[in-house]
Structures are given as structure tokens and as C-alpha cells.
Amino acid sequence: MTSPSSSPQEPGLSEADYDLIYGSESGWVEARTSCPHLASLSADLTHIPTPDTPCNRCQHPSENWLCLSCKDVLCSRFVNKHMLQHFRETNHSVALSFSDLSVWCFSCDAYLDAQVIAQLRPVYEVAYILKFGEPPPLRTNQLPSAGDNQAEA
């Protein structure tokens, strides 16, 4: 918790509410670059349903996720929670959002960086092409190279 002196609080908001709105519960989330649950991924993630596929259980047309173990398409926790229910029933941990192409591991309770994790890169690229009709732009490496540190030594 933050103290009132460390962050300006809005009048009428408790410290807990302020932290919930403006604190660690909101804002930028750093995606993980590894995950111990990738062994359960489907062997063929280059052939996937299109991003406009409705939820297999309720037919909801949006906010759907692709299970990366069995390729079932199910709706998000903000609709009817069918993907969350699927995880609880099957323990299929990793899913790709057709809304924003993010990848979530339910077991790790974390986003995964599909552009960095080699096992996820192909499904991310196929989903991107299916959604936008072109390959994803190349991501620049944001980490300093080993040669950058040698100048300081």
C-alpha cells in the first residue's frame, strides 16, 4: 500500500480504491518470456480457426480465445467465461486472444510474449495474417547486445 504522502489521492477515494484504479492492478503488464506449460501445445498451430470464429459453446461473436492445446474457440471471462471454464475442466493452460492476439497462461496467471517465445511465434504470425491480411511487423530487439557492455569494461 502507498502512503498518502507518496501518491496524490483524489477526494472521496479510499487508499485501497486509489491503489486499485491507479496502482499495480492497472496499467502496463510485462509479458513473460518463458512458461513451463508450453509442452501441452498442439503439434500443429499453423492451421487454426479464423479470428471471427464464434464461441463453440454460446456462439458469442467476439472476445473469443483460441485454446492452444486443442484449438477450441471459446469466449472470454468478460462474456460467458467459457475459456476459463475450459481451462478448469481440461487444464489446457495457454490460449490466444482473437481480440488483441495476446497469449495468456491460466496456470501462470500471466501474459506470454508470443513474439519472443519460439513455440508461440508461428501461431501468433498465422493469427495476425488471418486477422489483418499481412504478416506482423518485425519487432526490434529492445535488449542491449553483449557488445554494448564491452565499451564500459
Secondary-structure map:
Elements: H1 15-22, E1 64-67, E2 73-75, H2 82-90, E3 94-97, E4 103-105, E5 110-112, H3 121-132, H4 146-150
Antiparallel strand pairs: 1-2, 1-3, 3-4, 4-5
Number of helices: 4
**Termini separation (Å)?**
40 Å
SSE order, as H and E?
HEEHEEEHH
Broad shape: globular
Structural class: alpha+beta
Total count of strands = 5
Classify the beta-strand content into a percent band: 5-15%
For the largest beta-sheet, the strand count, sense and barrel status come to: 5 strands, antiparallel
Q: What topology, given as strand order, has the largest sheet?
A: 2-1-3-4-5
Helix percentage range? 10-25%
Describe what you observe in this structure.
The protein is globular and about 50 Å long. Mean pLDDT is 83; it is low at 1-8 and 143-153. It has a 5-stranded antiparallel β-sheet, with helices on one face. With 153 residues, it is of the alpha+beta class. It has helices at residues 15-22, 82-90, 121-132, 146-150; strands at residues 64-67, 73-75, 94-97, 103-105, 110-112. The protein contains 4 helices and 5 strands, in the order αββαβββαα.
